[in-house]
Amino acid sequence: MVDKLAGMETMLSFEEAGEKILAGMVAVTETEVVDLEHLPGRVLAGDVTAGMNVPNHDNSAMDGYAVRSVDLAGTGEVRLRVVSDLAAGGYHSSILNQGEAVRIMTGAPIPPGADAVVIQEICRRNQDWVTVPCGCKPGEHVRSAGEDMKVGDKIFATGRRLRPADVGVLAAQGISQGRVFRRIRVAVLSTGNEVVEIASPIRPGQVYDSNRAGLKAALRAMGCEVMDFGIVGDHLATIETALERASHTADAIISTGGVSVGDYDLVRLALENKGNVNFWKVAMKPGKPQAYGRLGRAAFFGLPGNPVSGLTVFYLLIRPALFRLMGGGTWPKKMFQATFKGHFSKKHSRKEFLRAIVRFTVDGVNVETTGPQGSGILTSLSAANALIVIPEGPVTITSADRVTVWMIDDD
Ligand code: AMP
Ligand code: MG
Predict the structure, then answer these.
(1) Residue 411: its pLDDT value, please?
(2) Going by CA atoms, what residue is nearest to atom 7 of ligand 1?
């Protein structure tokens, strides 16, 4: 009874839990220099400023003829003398005189004196001469120097998680390496006397350790370094030792199992003995029992053992926290409205997250659940690309209702 009351006192809403967890996250400060090809997914540890104009010279956007637009100011056609043939990479250094044109390919620098390009489709070439229609404007089909990036422009700010196109932008600047925050080290351990190592024999009543496998994959997908602390039995001293060992090197520790109020739920106790527990109940389904706190310098996340609950809590609460630890700031949550198909009803007061499939169609965004939502049905999570967010209190939703969805894809 006493224990139950203590639990009630520390019951937090989902939002309160999210805020408290984030408030406890201190981003890593150590940095390292990484080659360009390994930069995607890493978090920049400094602003990047353009050291050069891109493009570095006015150049042609089309295949055609570089001209002086003043030569084509009249009406009808003009015959120009072709003084040079310029492919991309070539350079025409002498100034274009009145009545002259340069044959030019896409990307080639605009010769001095020229200020426009006439596309080849509307020109007639005859040996050293080309007939060009009048009426072209200055700057036509010209990409001007610095139109993409100008010297001194701030290209990226600290905290940006680099994407493939960003790496292209750095390469366009001739930058071959970037300074990023070091990867965060996340220790993962499973608890439970019934949990066994995958690929080993299994007896009735035992379960393979699906939690650790799923969590490790999710952590690696977001760019964390994983420290595998294996499976620990339901034995207080063993759990304490494992947590303490992990806290010496990890930035964060994630355990699964042992955080509810059953006789063998010892993780919370171990945390109380060796570190600090912040709270351990969140008004959400799945995932009500959780333990958060610190062990030495490591942030601690104690997830429920149930595989659906554990990973769901990871996506909703832990991933944004780790992202902040990585130096990435606010996790770019993808949350929006979609049209529900099906029927769902609940009476309880907790916020509920239904495993669901969001489909993007030309007629709009639709969502339906992945089927039975029992917390033991892990395939319902593997089939899902999103969670439907069902508010607190009694709720009934039916087809065509608009619902809030939260994408849980791994990018
Ligand atoms: P617990 O939170 O420790 O009470 O565990 C809740 C449920 O999740 C139990 O049915 C456990 O057998 C199951 N479970 C706990 N840990 C794991 C794991 N690592 N992999 C798969 N199932 C687990
Ligand atoms: Mg257990």
Answers:
(1) 60
(2) 306
* Ligand 1 center from residue 309 Cα (angstroms): 10
Which contacts (CB < 8 Å, 24+ apart) does range 327-336 have?
327/27, 327/28, 327/43, 327/45, 327/158, 327/159, 327/181, 328/43, 328/159, 328/161, 329/159, 333/406, 334/406, 334/407, 334/409, 335/389, 335/404, 335/405, 335/406, 335/407, 336/365, 336/404, 336/405
Atom number, ligand 1, closest to the C-alpha of residue 231: 19
Residue whose CB lies within 8 A of the most ligand 1 atoms, among 189, 200, 209, 211, for a mutation test: 211
Mean pLDDT by 10 residues, the chain (411 residues): 46 94 96 98 98 96 98 96 92 94 96 97 97 96 97 98 97 98 98 96 97 97 97 96 97 95 85 88 92 95 95 97 97 96 97 98 97 92 97 97 93 60
Residue 194, ligand 1, Cβ within 6 A = yes
Q: Which atom of ligand 1 is nearest the CA belonging to 262?
A: 4
Domains of the chain: 12-30+182-325 (3.40.980.10), 32-54+147-181 (3.90.105.10), 59-143 (2.170.190.11), 335-407 (2.40.340.10)
